[in-house]
Amino acid sequence: MTAILQDKETNPFESMMSRFDIAAEKLKLDPGLYQILRSPDREITVSIPIMMDNGQLKVFTGYRVQHNIARGPCKGGIRFAPNVSLDEVRALAAWMTWKCAVVNIPFGGAKGGIICDPAHMSMGEKEKLTRRYTAMLIDVLGPERDVPAPDMNTNEQVMAWVMDTYSMHQRHTVTGVVTGKPIELGGSQGRHDATGRGVMICCDQAIKRIGMKREETRVAVQGFGNVGSIGARLLFEAGYRIVGLSDINGGILNDHGIDVHAAIKHYQETRTLESLPGTTPCTNEALLEAQCDILVPAATENQITSQNADKLHCKIICEGANGPTTAAADDILESKRILVIPDILANAGGVTVSYFEWVQDRQGYFWTEAVVNSELERIMVDSFNAVAAYADKHRVNMRIASYMLAIDRVAYTTKLRGIYA
Ligand code: GLU
In CATH, which of 3.30.1380.10, 2.30.110.10, 3.40.50.720, 2.120.10.30 is domain 194-346? Predict the structure, then answer.
């Protein structure tokens, strides 16, 4: 029984759907629209044969789920990880639909994933995997159809391979087929830091809401990938006191503050955060329960659950990762009066600058980093305020407010377009 309950709690699609259901009920969503919005438009599974460096053939499984295209082309990252599943990719695709709608950019939602262990693959193997996956999806990708981006364990180089493979098939260079590319290939200034920057902007808005100042705000960040390390650095540079950091192997604490620049240097040299002078090592569980004002879960799904939500000490949670909190934990956090800035708002900085990249690629005209950052700030602040106002008006928390706002926008467009039959 416990196992079944636990499985239900941590299934990302169930997690997404239970919030969707609450929001849909509060919106009194038409039952027909409810059915449309809960079902992904298209789910593709591909078997990807790769000749490995040792001369053996290996077949990998990859997915691309296109959840909804009512508001524009599908948008969403591709992740490489051993535990990728169709259920996870399906949830992440739906989250992209809601995320793009929350920040009001003209995209639908999609997500891709390949079951693989990138830590134990060579560059050549990863390149072949990326190219064959792209080739197998050639008919469904495109600047007007579906635009991938980086996600867990994928980066600018992987996007360059996607762009090149797609372009080779089209017989001309198509930069707008992916975002998060190297700047030299049509990438955008500011895209690399964008998700972390969006997290920082949300923290600024949240402390304003509860009347705190940056200097007196203690922050613990879980995860040291693109979102966690850049988010921590930008928060540190903005004057926040970073009291905890962690990566997949464990974390470090110092209530007086951690020099994030020193932590990044140490991490680059040793591939570990532990042993950073002046800090105390801790487990990832202990990091989440650290004494802090803001907790930034920026690692992976299901970190804050019914098992540990009661043990958190923060006032604010700013969700850098997708789905770090289970639906069962939401109620506990609410009863503890923790202000949760939900993932579909807090980590939307990445896809927002992806949108700017796509616009720049289509225009062939590129913006300065200052323009990108100020446009990002405008969209994040406006979206934060729109969600907060919606929450106040409907007397719901920020998570349900963001779902309501997003579902309302997608439902409205769907109704306006009508049903083609
Ligand atoms: N993978 C990122 C996310 O989950 C970025 C997606 C994008 O830029 O399309 O939001």
Answer: 3.40.50.720
